[in-house]
Amino acid sequence: MSVANTLPEGLEIREIDDPKYGAEIAELRFSTYQYDTLFSRMYPIYTDPAGTKSWMTTREITIMKMKTTKTAAIFDTTTGMMLAFIKLTVPVELPLEGSAAENLPAYPEGFNVPLQNKFRSLLKASDKYYNKQADSYIGALYTLPSHQGRGYGSALLSWAIEQARATSSRIFIQASPSGHNLYLKLGWKDLEKLTIDLSEFGGETYPIYNMVKEA
Ligand SMILES: CC(C)(COP(=O)(O)OP(=O)(O)OC[C@H]1O[C@@H](n2cnc3c(N)ncnc32)[C@H](O)[C@@H]1OP(=O)(O)O)[C@@H](O)C(=O)NCCC(=O)NCCS
């Protein structure tokens, strides 16, 4: 059964590579951050929402132009609205032409650089699990908060698994707490649980799960 058939009528999954979708992807990503104890502390979503969205849009457009990642989204076919999206990086020929980070705009005012550095160094320590030339990697999966729990995340993950099968044997993921259970259900296995201590930023701890699935 094709992935699209698992969605209710009136919805479709489309692969997208046009930078014109950058603003919509940024808006969708932004809409989930208030519910996330890490990202709500990292991005100035309350003090500078417009600056944050604008920075995120530029970032998304930059990444979409690089074409190292496949993006798919679920659209409402009546309104054209994007309801969920996923980003899948398939095995890449190294060296890459330059990293997206080199071309990114300056962070918005109020961006929590120390927290982001902490987050990045933790993720870097996970590089040992992920072979960029052989594995696929799910770099983002977001569903609009008002549309979660309806199977959209699962449908996009099925799409990603089908794509990954063509080029790789394993699909690596660094899962947030809200995605962890879903990945377990769909066959991913835990490799390691990491935690970010948010106490200096007024929070508690935030878990991240290194996970892998045979494609
Ligand atoms: C993780 C995320 C993308 C999941 O998206 P989603 O569209 O809600 O995913 P699904 O609807 O397929 O699955 C969510 C839950 O609903 C259940 N579900 C799926 N289809 C369902 C249906 N038709 N009716 C009722 N429940 C359903 C799933 O089994 C799953 O249950 P679980 O939470 O116990 O695992 C979403 O929570 C999100 O955007 N989170 C914030 C961003 C984030 O952290 N992303 C993960 C990055 S690693």
Question: What features would you describe in this structure?
Answer:
The chain has helices at 22-33, 39-42, 49-66, 113-124, 152-165, 177-185, and strands at residues 11-16, 69-76, 82-89, 136-143, 170-175, 189-197, 205-214. The protein has a single domain, classed as Gcn5-related N-acetyltransferase (GNAT) (Aminopeptidase). Helix 1 packs across helix 3 (49-66). The chain has 215 residues and is of the alpha+beta class. It is 32% helix and 26% strand. The chain contains 6 helices and 7 strands, in the order E-H-H-H-E-E-H-E-H-E-H-E-E. It has a 7-stranded mixed beta sheet with strand order 1-2-3-4-5-7-6, with helices on both faces. It is globular and about 40 Å long. A hairpin with a 5-residue loop joins strand 2 and strand 3 (82-89). The site of coenzyme A has 19 residues, from strand 4, helix 5 and helix 6.
